[in-house]
C-alpha cells in the first residue's frame, strides 16, 4: 500500500506519492491530488473508467497520468476515489473508480492541472517517490 | 529573499542579472528566494527585450513567478511560453459598478449573500446552467464576450469596457484539443475555486478624484468584482501544451533551466499553434465573466428591482498579448507575457475606452476576502511594458494556511467584522485566509511608488462567494 503527502509551494500545492513499485507511487500521487478536491472516504467506487497512454519518460508519464485523471473526472462529472495503473515499458493502462458529485460530499479545492515544477520520479532504498506541484 | 543579491536602482526597483524586481525593501525582502531564481530563468530565454520583471505582488509560481512580466520579439528569435501564461489562461477580474450605496445593501446583506451563493455556480464539482454543443463552443472561442451578449447575457455596452472589446482575434479552435473542448461544455458561467470569487465591495477611500470621477466611483458606492478565468478549457490547454512545448524546446535546441518554462519560438509551428489555442481560451474567459456578470445582475434585480450593474472594466492577468511599445526610442511589436500581472495602459492610449482616456486604464488589484481591493489607473512612463500588480499575492503556502486556520472559525470571525462569506469548501476558506496574503495596502503603495499605476480607490469586502 502506497502513501501520500504534501510539500510546500507558495501559490499551489506539492504532492508526493510513494510505494514499493513505480505504479504504486503514481497511484498514491493520484490519491494525494484527488484528496485536495474531496474526502475520498466519502466517495463510493460505483463507476469505473479506463484509459491508456504512451510515454517513455517516467517523469512526463506522472504528469500525463495525473492530468488524464483530472480530465476524465471532469468529462464524466465524477468524484474519484480509487486508482490503478499498469505499465509495460512506455505503455500505460490506467483506471479509476468513483461516483457522480452530490451535495453531501465534502468540497475541497479544484485542481486545474499537474505541472512540471518540482517534478521528480525516483527510487530510494527500494521505495519509489513521485512528486510535482499541482495548480489550484 | 536575500536583498544583498540585488542592486537597488530606485527605492522601488531592484536589479539582478537581466531581471528587475519592483517593490519596496520590505516586500522584496519577504519574497521567497524562488522568485529571484524563477525570474532569472525567464531572463535567460531567447528574444527577451529589456528585463524580465516582477511586480510588487510577486511570489513563487511554476516556470514564471506569479507577478512575472516578460516581453519577447518574434523577429529576434523570441519565444512564447505556456508556463509564462499559466494554466488559468486569461484569468482576470470583471468589475461592475452599481447605482447602490452601502446604505441600500445594509438591511439585505444576508438574503443578498444567500441569493448570490445559490445563483453563481462555484467550487469543485459544480457545473453551469448552460451546456454547449461543440459547434457552439467553437463560436465562443472566436467571439468571446460578444457571443455571450448576442445570446442575451448582458448588454452591448458592456463590451466597450472589456479588454479587446470582448474578443481577441487570432483564436484557432482547431488548435484546441477534444479533451479541452469536452472539459468546457458544462463550465460556461462558472466561477471555479481556489482564489476565485464574486465579491460585493464598497468604495471606502478615494485617492485620485479625477480618475474616480471618470470611473464613476464615489465613497459608499457598491461594486461587484468577479475573479475567474477560462475554466476547464484553459486548464486543459495549459496541460496539453506544457509537455508539447517542453518537448518542442528540446527538439529545437532551446536549453530550458526549468522544464515548466516550456516554450517555442513564436515563429515556429508549435509556437503558432499554442498562440491560436491561447487566444481561444482568452475568448472563453471573456465570455465566462460576461455570463457571470449577467447572473450577478439577475440576482441584484430580484432584490433591488431597477438596479444597475454597469461594467466598470474587465482586465485579464494571465496572458500573452501582442502590443506595440516604445523601447530604447524605437516602436517595437512585442509579445508581452503577463503571468499574474495586469495590463496598465496609460492615459490617451487608443485601446482603452474613450471615457477613461484622459486618466488611463483601470487597473484592478484584487485583495483577499478580509482586507480589500484597489482600483488604480495606468500611468504614463510605466517602466514595465504597461504592466502592474494583479493582487495581494500569497505570503504563505496553502499547506501552512491549512495548519493555521480553521475555515468555519474564519468565516465566523469575518462575519463578526461585517463580511459575509458563502462557500461549500471550508478547506478553501482556510487556504484563502486573509493572513495568508501579503499586505494589499503595501502592494498598492509600492505599485504606485514604482510608477506602475496610481491608486484611485480602495474597496472593502462585504460579501464574498468563494468556490
Please render the helix and strand layout as text.
The complex is a heterodimer of chains A (136) and B (467).
Chain A: E1 3-7, E2 13-19, H1 22-37, E3 47-54, H2 58-76, E4 78-88, E5 91-100, E6 113-114, E7 120-124, E8 127-135
Antiparallel strand pairs in A: 1-2, 2-8, 3-5, 4-5, 6-8, 7-8
Chain B: E1 7-10, E2 13-16, E3 19-22, H1 25-30, H2 33-43, E4 48-62, E5 64-72, E6 79-81, E7 92-101, H3 102-105, H4 109-119, H5 134-143, H6 145-150, H7 156-160, H8 178-184, E8 197-206, H9 209-215, E9 221-228, H10 231-251, E10 263-265, H11 269-303, E11 309-316, E12 318-327, E13 330-339, E14 342-343, E15 362-365, E16 373-378, E17 387-388, H12 398-404, H13 407-416, E18 420-422, H14 426-431, H15 440-449, E19 453-466
Parallel strand pairs in B: 3-4, 18-19
Antiparallel strand pairs in B: 1-2, 2-3, 4-5, 5-13, 6-10, 7-9, 7-11, 8-9, 8-19, 12-13, 14-17, 15-16, 16-19
Structure, described:
By secondary structure, chain A is an alpha+beta fold. Chain A has helices spanning 22-37, 58-76; strands at 3-7, 13-19, 47-54, 78-88, 91-100, 113-114, 120-124, 127-135. Chain A has a single domain (3-135), classed as Archease, Possible Chaperone, Chain: A, domain 1. The longest helix of chain A has 19 residues, at 58-76. Chain A is globular. Chain A starts with a strand and ends with a strand. In chain A, 52% of the residues are buried. The mean pLDDT of chain A is 95. Chain B has one domain (3-395, 437-466): tRNA-splicing ligase RtcB, CATH 3.90.1860.10. Helices cover 33% and strands 28% of the residues of chain B. Chain B has helices at residues 25-30, 33-43, 102-105, 109-119, 134-143, 145-150, 156-160, 178-184, 209-215, 231-251, 269-303, 398-404, 407-416, 426-431, 440-449; strands spanning 7-10, 13-16, 19-22, 48-62, 64-72, 79-81, 92-101, 197-206, 221-228, 263-265, 309-316, 318-327, 330-339, 342-343, 362-365, 373-378, 387-388, 420-422, 453-466. In chain B, strands 7, 8, 9, 11, 15, 16, 18 and 19 form an 8-stranded mixed β-sheet that branches. In chain B, strand 12 (318-327) and strand 13 form a beta hairpin. The longest helix of chain B is centred in the middle third of the chain and has 35 residues, at 269-303. The two termini of chain B are 32 Å apart. At the A-B interface, helix 2 and strand 6 of A face strand 4, helix 8, helix 10, helix 12 and helix 14 of B.
Amino acid at each position: 500500500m502506497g502513501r501520500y503527502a504534501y510539500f510546500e509551494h507558495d501559490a499551489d500545492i506539492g504532492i508526493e506519492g510513494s510505494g514499493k513499485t513505480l505504479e504504486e507511487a503514481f497511484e498514491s500521487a493520484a490519491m494525494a491530488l484527488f484528496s485536495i478536491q474531496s474526502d475520498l472516504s466519502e466517495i463510493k467506487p460505483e463507476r469505473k473508467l479506463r484509459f491508456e497512454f504512451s510515454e517513455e519518460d517516467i517523469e512526463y508519464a506522472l504528469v500525463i497520468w495525473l492530468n488524464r485523471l483530472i480530465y476524465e473526472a471532469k468529462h464524466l462529472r465524477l468524484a474519484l476515489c480509487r486508482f490503478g495503473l499498469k505499465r509495460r515499458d512506455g505503455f500505460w493502462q490506467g483506471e479509476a473508480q468513483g461516483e457522480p458529485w452530490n451535495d453531501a460530499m465534502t468540497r475541497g479545492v479544484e485542481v486545474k492541472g499537474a505541472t512540471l515544477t518540482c517534478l521528480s520520479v525516483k527510487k530510494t532504498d527500494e521505495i519509489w517517490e513521485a512528486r510535482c506541484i499541482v495548480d489550484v | 529573499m536575500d536583498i544583498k543579491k540585488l542592486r537597488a536602482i530606485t527605492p522601488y526597483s531592484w536589479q539582478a542579472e537581466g531581471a528587475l524586481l519592483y517593490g519596496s525593501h520590505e516586500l522584496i525582502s519577504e519574497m521567497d528566494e524562488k522568485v529571484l531564481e524563477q525570474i532569472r530563468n525567464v531572463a535567460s530565454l531567447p528574444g527577451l527585450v529589456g528585463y524580465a520583471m516582477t511586480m510588487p505582488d510577486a511570489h513563487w509560481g511554476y516556470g514564471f513567478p506569479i507577478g512575472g512580466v516578460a516581453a519577447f520579439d518574434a523577429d529576434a528569435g523570441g519565444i512564447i511560453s505556456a508556463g509564462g501564461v499559466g494554466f488559468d489562461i486569461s484569468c482576470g477580474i470583471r468589475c461592475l459598478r452599481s447605482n447602490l450605496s452601502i446604505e441600500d445593501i445594509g438591511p439585505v446583506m444576508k438574503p443578498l449573500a444567500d441569493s448570490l451563493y445559490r445563483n453563481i455556480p462555484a467550487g469543485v464539482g459544480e457545473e453551469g446552467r448552460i451546456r454547449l454543443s461543440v459547434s457552439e463552443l467553437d463560436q465562443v472561442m472566436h467571439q468571446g464576450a460578444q457571443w455571450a451578449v448576442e445570446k442575451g447575457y448582458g448588454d452591448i455596452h458592456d463590451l466597450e469596457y472589456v479588454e479587446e472589446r470582448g474578443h481577441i482575434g487570432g483564436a484557432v479552435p482547431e488548435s484546441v484539443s477534444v479533451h479541452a473542448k469536452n472539459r468546457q461544455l458544462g463550465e460556461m458561467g462558472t466561477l471555479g475555486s481556489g482564489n476565485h470569487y464574486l465579491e460585493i465591495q464598497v468604495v471606502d477611500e478615494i485617492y485620485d478624484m479625477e480618475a474616480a470621477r471618470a470611473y464613476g466611483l464615489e465613497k459608499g458606492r457598491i461594486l461587484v468584482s468577479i475573479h475567474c478565468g477560462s475554466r476547464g478549457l484553459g486548464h486543459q490547454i495549459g496541460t496539453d501544451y506544457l509537455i508539447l512545448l517542453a518537448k518542442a524546446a528540446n527538439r529545437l535546441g532551446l536549453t530550458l533551466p526549468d522544464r515548466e518554462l516550456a516554450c517555442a519560438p513564436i515563429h515556429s509551428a508549435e509556437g503558432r499553434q499554442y498562440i491560436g489555442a491561447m487566444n481561444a481560451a482568452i475568448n472563453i474567459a471573456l465570455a465566462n465573466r460576461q455570463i457571470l456578470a449577467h447572473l450577478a445582475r439577475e440576482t441584484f434585480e430580484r432584490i433591488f428591482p431597477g438596479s444597475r450593474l454597469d461594467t466598470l472594466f474587465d482586465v485579464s492577468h494571465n496572458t500573452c498579448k501582442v502590443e506595440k511599445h516604445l523601447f530604447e526610442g524605437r516602436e517595437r511589436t512585442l509579445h508581452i507575457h503577463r503571468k499574474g500581472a495586469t495590463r496598465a495602459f496609460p492615459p490617451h492610449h487608443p485601446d482603452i475606452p474613450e471615457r477613461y482616456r484622459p486618466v488611463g486604464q483601470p487597473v484592478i488589484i484584487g485583495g483577499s476576502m478580509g482586507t480589500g481591493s484597489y482600483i488604480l489607473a495606468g500611468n504614463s512612463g510605466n517602466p514595465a511594458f504597461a504592466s502592474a500588480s494583479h493582487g495581494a499575492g500569497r505570503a504563505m503556502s496553502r499547506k501552512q494556511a491549512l495548519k493555521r486556520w480553521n475555515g468555519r472559525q474564519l468565516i465566523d470571525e469575518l462575519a463578526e467584522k461585517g463580511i459575509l462569506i458563502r462557500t461549500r469548501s471550508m478547506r478553501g476558506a482556510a487556504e484563502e485566509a486573509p493572513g495568508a496574503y501579503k499586505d494589499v495596502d503595501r502592494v498598492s503603495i509600492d505599485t504606485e511608488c514604482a510608477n506602475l499605476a496610481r491608486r484611485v480607490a480602495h474597496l472593502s469586502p462585504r460579501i464574498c462567494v468563494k468556490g
